[in-house]
Amino acid sequence: MSLDGWSNVHNEPIICTSFVSQSGESVLIDTVDTTGKSHTAEYLKEIALESMSNATKKFGVSVRSIVTDNASNVAKMRTNLESDNLIQYGCSAHVLNLLALDLDNSAVTDHILRVIKYFRNKHLPAALAKETLGKKLILPHEVRWNTMTDAIKSFLENRGNLVQLCQDHKNDIDPHITKIINDVNIVMNAEHMLSYLKPIAVALDRAQRDKTTIAIVVEIWNKLELDLKGQSLDVKKHFYRRKDMALDAPHYLANMLDHRFLGKCLNNHQREQAFTYLNKINPDFIPFVMALLAESTPFPKYVFLPQFRNTSPMMWWKGIIIDDTTWPNKQGFLSLCEQLLTAIAATASLERMFSSFGLVQSKLRNRLGNEKAGKLTFLFKYKNQ
Question: GO: which molecular function terms (predicted)?
Answer without folding.
Answer: zinc ion binding
